[in-house]
Specification:
This protein is an alpha/beta fold. The chain has 11 helices and 8 strands.
Length: 211
């Protein structure tokens, strides 16, 4: 699969490593330009290249958005429309500024991203510490390995969620369906019981049901 990643920080950069490791072609972008990503690209190796955000969005069959939520209006809408977009972002008012409809819980940040881009947005990888995403991937069903960590995912399109769930499994984690963007997004956003929790899939299901 061709994957574009917009945002090369702790989550975006780690996902680029995982995806390249299992053979996906990756175009990665940041806000400072492709020339600032050459060291990261060289470090990762394999089928990874630096790009602008617009180029990464056009390149990918699936796009990961891993930027401060407050900058979501800078995304290249035309290139994202109709594609599967993995939203790893979280809303932090102290960093992003206040959005009244988020502050009063009228909607979720992922719903706003979906409305703005016209993409099939799937919320994922937002509730895990970057160090755990980097270090705790585990092969499936390997004797002697500790249980794999759960990755909650939510979205409105079952097909898009299926694509993302397969990626989660392939890189070494267990996807747990948290529901729609409205339902699930609230269940694994900052402040929720499953947010940054280091739990198995069964434990995540229990937490999400109780949320």
């Amino acid at each position: 699969m061709r994957i574009g990643i917009i945002g090369a920080g702790h989550i975006g950069g780690t996902l680029a490593r995982h995806f390249a490791r299992i053979g996906h072609e990756v175009a990665i972008a940041n806000s400072r330009g492709p020339e600032t990503l050459q060291d990261l690209v060289a470090e990762i190796g394999g089928p990874v290249h630096a790009a602008t955000a617009r180029e990464a969005a056009a390149f990918g069959d699936l796009i990961v958005v891993s930027i401060p939520f407050g900058r979501y209006r800078e995304l290249p809408v035309d290139e994202l429309r109709g594609k599967v977009v993995v939203d790893t972002c979280n809303y932090y008012p102290s960093r992003d500024g206040h959005f009244a409809d988020l502050d009063d819980d009228a909607t979720t940040s992922s719903e706003k991203l979906q409305q703005f881009t016209g993409a099939d947005v799937v919320k994922a990888f937002n509730a895990i510490y970057s160090e755990n995403l980097r270090d705790r991937a585990r092969p499936p069903d390997q004797p002697g390995q500790p249980e794999r960590l759960a990755i909650p995912i939510s979205g409105d399109d079952d097909g898009a969620k299926g694509v993302v769930a397969n990626l989660v499994r392939d890189i070494g984690f267990d996807p747990v369906d948290a529901g729609t963007l409205a339902q699930g997004g609230r269940k694994h956003q900052p402040g929720s019981s499953v947010y940054t929790a280091e739990v198995s899939a069964d434990e995540a299901v229990t937490l999400l049901r109780a949320a």
